[in-house]
Amino acid sequence: MSGLIGHRGLLLRAAAATGTAYRYWRVNVTLNNGGSFVTLHDAQFRAELGGSDLTSPSTPIVASSQHATAPLSNLIDNSLVTSWSTNTASTGWFYVDLGTAQSLAQLVLTGPDSGFTNRGPRNFTVDGSDNASSWTTVQSFTAVTWVASETKAFAL
To answer: Of the residues 20, 38, 43, 155, which has the fewest C-beta atoms closer than 10 A?
Structure first.
């Protein structure tokens, strides 16, 4: 089942939740918008559309890389002033460990600042895993563009 979510005048196409619960949830960026890094201000994982974030600053999080001035912990610190960036790649991934298997309905991402919007994820997947080594793609997103510090909600 497909649906649309409106945000700041944008319509984003997304599939409805699969209902599959996973302990680990990954965002795997396969292409950014032309920048030399991948950068995001915030990531929220929600069990319900518009619900509360299942992560907190103490949630375990792992990434393919992190820039020395934009560490991974910034991604779930509930601050839009800080950000996470890969260290030298225009692709990258991060995953959270929710502690127990949980179904997700929505991923919310806040993109990079003005002047760095080309670092926002253009193509990415949201993947789930029970062991953090074998991943199942839950949803794919393509051709996503960003304006400065834009927050987008993606239904899963």
So the answer is: 20
Contacts of 109 (CB under 8 A, 6+ apart): 27, 40, 42, 43, 44, 121, 151, 152, 154
Q: Which residues of the chain have pLDDT under 50?
A: 1-17
Nearest C-alpha neighbor of 18 from the set 3, 1, 42: 1
Alpha helix segments (H runs only) across 9-127: none
Q: Closest Cα to residue 74, out of 100, 32, 104, 112? A: 112
Residue 3: the pLDDT is: 40
Which pLDDT belongs to residue 18?
A: 54
d(CA 149, CA 42): 10
**Three-point CA angle 130, 40, 149, nearest 5°:** 140
What confidence score (pLDDT) does residue 19 get?
77
Question: What is the pLDDT at residue 96?
Answer: 98
Give residue limits of the domains in the chain. 2-155
